Amino acid sequence: MRLIFEIAVTHIAGRGRQTLVAVFGVAVGVGFSIAMAALMQGGQDDFVEQLIDTMPHVEINDEQRTARRQPAETAYHTTQIFGLRPREDRRGIINPTAARSWLEAWIPGRLAPDLKLQGVIRYSSREVGASVIGIEPVAERSVSPIIGDFVEGSFGALAAGGNNIVIGDTMAKRLGAGLNDTVAAVSSEGLTRNFKIVGLFHTGTTARDEGEAYVLLKNAQILSARTNAINEIRIKLANPDDAPVVARRIEAELGYRAEAWQEANESLLEALVIRNVIMYTVVAAIMLVAGFGIYNIISTITHEKARDIAIMKSLGFAEADMRRLFLLEGVAIGAGGSALGWLLGFALVYALSLVRFELAATGQEMTRLPIAWSILHYLIASGFALSSAAFAGYLPARRAAGLNPVDIIRGAT
């Protein structure tokens, strides 16, 4: 085996320029594959992290996945009900205190109840449609990332009590209002209540900064004329991956719709899987192109060393040794290109990590390129490169092993 290795090195070194071109081709493919994987994986991780941070891991609301079973359906086997509607549709989670106590007893995380209602925030002659969310400040601190997103005032001022409100800075600009100004909140029931702005937050998400306002839970209940009512319970888990299991148990026990963050963003997560498939398909294509260079050089060596092959086989080298020799040459070029590609890939990823910019037009600010540093990207790129090199070296190696030494020595073609 050592002799075969030395012969392979001699063959490769004998065509130094072509070897360097093939190695550089593999290196460029590996390097750019690593950079592309780091950038795309980083973008995906950053996106999922934002989903996990900005939304509850499990959200319980006062809806049900299927219509509630009616007494007539239980009493009679054949029943059809049309147009059923209660006299007064006052939705909300029934017996919220008991539901909250049951959840706190076993859930590995934190939860916060709220009452969300649609309304209008009015200041002077301007008004903006908004979701007015009634919260308990102490519980809200444990589930909402908005606590750290204040640009003026603070969340603590809301907890002080009174008719206070915190709104997004984009909403404030649209209203022309500022800190300590008094705005009017109008509910869909037509009730109006004045609130003093004690904080302005900026999350970077336009939908929230422009369309959400937070008040104390009791004030939201008064504004909606729904005493002691809540219509949502938001949960943050210690492990976000446990959300589907927790949601299924809650829905089975309480009967209300419990939605895990994976379910709420199912289409987006599927799109990320498809994007990864496309990414690794492109990586495989790049390595396949690099493999053609390796195939070309091994084929040329095989053709030029035909007499050497005949002599070696005459001296007792088996066909398996010939295959092993030229396959080793292809893998050696692939390995050299992979090693150089690792350095190139690291340099590209490091350069991308230094890029800084701001983009607010789309509603989501970014100040850096999201980069994922993972040894897995290097291993996958090298795996593709070595597989391509082995395949590119196998075909000439098979042809070399099948050459007849007698025909070669006699000068037969």
UniProtKB/TrEMBL annotation:
Record-annotated membrane-spanning stretches: 20-40, 277-298, 325-351, 371-395
Compartments reported by the entry: Cell membrane
Alphabetical keyword list: Cell membrane, Membrane, Plasmid, Transmembrane, Transmembrane helix
Domain named ABC3 transporter permease C-terminal: residues: 281-405
InterPro entries referenced in this protein's UniProt entry, alphabetically: ABC3_permease_C (IPR003838), Lipoprotein-release_system (IPR051447), MacB_PCD (IPR025857)
Main location class: membrane
A Pfam family annotated for this UniProt entry: MacB_PCD
Residues annotated as domain MacB-like periplasmic core: 19-252
Coiled-coil residue windows: none
Biological process per Gene Ontology, one example term: lipoprotein localization to outer membrane
Domain of life: Bacteria
Gene Ontology CC: plasma membrane protein complex
Topological category with respect to the lipid bilayer: Multi-pass membrane protein
Stated family: Belongs to the ABC-4 integral membrane protein family. LolC/E subfamily.
Name under which the protein is recorded: ABC transporter permease FtsX-like protein
Organism: Rhizobium gallicum bv. gallicum R602sp
Lineage: Bacteria, Pseudomonadati, Pseudomonadota, Alphaproteobacteria, Hyphomicrobiales
